Amino acid sequence: MIDRSPVGKPFLLLLFVPFLFLLLFVLSGCGQDNTPYYESHSTPGVTHDSIVLGSSLALKGHAKFLGTQNLCGALSYLKQVNEEGGVYGRKIRIIAYDDSYDPPQCLLNTQRLIVDDQVFALFCYVGTPTTVKILPFLAEARIPLLGIFTGANALRVPFNKYVINVRASYYQEIEAAVHHLINDLHINKIGVFYQYDAYGFDGLTGTELALQEYGLKPVARSYYIRGTTNVEDSLQRMQEAQAEAVVMIGTYDPCAKFIKRAVARNYNPIYYTVSFVSAGELGRRLHGIRDSIILMSQVVPPPEHPTESGSASEYVTLLKKYYPQDKPTFVGLEGFINAQVLVKGLRAAGKHLTRERFIRGIESVRNFQLWPGVSVSFGPNDHQGLEQVYFTWLQDGQFKLFKNWGQVASAWESKNKNHEQTEAKP
User: Fold this and answer.
1) Which residue in 172, 204, 206, 295 has the most C-beta neighbors within 10 A?
2) What are φ and ψ of residue 368, in 5° steps?
């Protein structure tokens, strides 16, 4: 017989279940903070004595210098931190996979880092076409990405809470360069030589926007395919347009070949490249080129500049300690600074490390001084730490810091006069 009375067992159970859930809810809240449930039990990549980060970058192939230097710069700082006890007793370890600057491989590497290796955060990525491909993973996995060797606008707009940029953007680099080309050198015929991918398109757009402020457009747009050095058609188009300055958004090999071929043709505009091109490698490939004016913007100061201290000098010291075979580079210093910001954020996050706490820790960083006059700041709606742009000029095989654009203007005027005199000779 079925008991249908209002005080039967089913009715009592219905009364008891809500009470049980209420009791569990109250007990679970005792002594707890507001950390979400999915983070309150375990955080991937974090143990009592380690923090594991994941990196995908070019360690082989035509862009390997960028990847290896950026990684060694970061590791120079992290090794020192680990020797001093780590962050709250946790040593920082990086699992790094080579993607050879290939977007599909970067996707595979990132999936492996998140799913198989269960890393805490992504760190030390290199390149625009590779990094933009993994953006959808970040929100899905709720995993931070910090320290990216690219100034791509796609990593800044729209705002992404999981992306933490340290360096200034390509738009900022190019805008500053175009300003000087037009106002200081009085050049209006500016062309763009770019890599045919997300990186090159970003630089092309940045140049077009900068020129638009002056009512100008590029006199020529020419490109090459990533991973190749086929620049002949691009050079021909630029020369036919008689561009007086060429903005170069590429990697060091094709940019160097373009300049060498142009010199052989007696075509000598001013060349300007963004920081990604790599000063050391481009300078080495252009050894012996003396008559061309080749400029490059940087987002960090020269590592061995005698008037700099702080991060620059500390980087030189620690690189010599841990990687004595390497020479200081702009690329390495940027990796070093990325590691400093990483550690600052980890310390600000506190002992009970979670990904969300790490992001909040980064957002709490204000006026973290790297060297005299230069500091890093972030905020809840501001995930770019630095705004500075520096300019260097290739002289005697090295890109050297300069601030006086009048010197460049004088060299440009002298070069034009010599060219006119040469053409006037019978």
Assistant:
1) 206
2) -80, 105
The string of pLDDT tens digits covering residues 223-249 is 999 999 999 999 999 999 999 999 999
Supply the DSSP symbol for 379: B
3-state SS assignment for residue 56: strand
pLDDT in tens, 342-370: 999 999 999 999 999 999 999 999 999 98
Residues 347, 276: Cα–Cα separation, whole Å: 30
- List strands edge to edge, sheet with 390-395: 221-224, 190-195, 245-249, 270-273, 294-298, 390-395, 398-401
Dihedral (Cα; 159, 164, 170, 171), 10-degree rounding: 30
* Peptide bond before residue 136 is cis, with ω within 30 degrees of 0: no
pLDDT-derived band at 425 (thresholds 50, 70, 90) equals low
Asked if residues 269 and 291 have their Cβ atoms less than 8 Å apart, the reply is: no
Coil, strand or helix: which one is 327? coil
- Confirm if 239 and 265 have CB atoms less than 8 A apart: yes
**Rounded Cα distance, 245 and 295, in Å:** 10
Higher pLDDT, 263 or 37: 263
Spatial distance between the Cα atoms of 210 and 216, rounded to a whole number of angstroms: 9
The 3-state DSSP class for residue 421 equals helix
E strand segments, 73-141: 91-98, 121-126
Q: Which two tokens stand for residue 155?
A: 């990593």
Alpha-carbon gap, residue 352 to 92, rounded angstroms: 15
**Type of residue at 394:** L
- pLDDT bucket at 22, cuts 50 / 70 / 90: very low
Report the phi/psi class of residue 357: left, alpha or beta, with left for phi > 0 and alpha for psi in -120 to 50: alpha
Please tell me the pTM assigned to this model. Answer: 0.87
The percent of residues in the chain predicted with pLDDT above 70, rounded, is: 86
